[in-house]
Amino acid sequence: MAHLTRRQFLTLSASTAGAVLLPRCASNQVVIGQTSDVIRSQAGLLGVTLTTRQTKLRIGETSGVFMSYNDQIPGTRLEAHPGDTVKIRLHNQLPQATNLHYHGLHISPTGNADNVFLSIPMGETPDYEFRIPENHPAGIFYYHPHLHGSVEDWELVNSDPDGMDHPFHLHVNPFQIISRNGQPEPYRVWKDTVLVKGYETVRIRIPFRDFTGKTVYHCHILDHEDLGMMGLIQIDTALANKNENSSSRG
Question: How much is the pTM?
Answer without folding.
Answer: 0.54
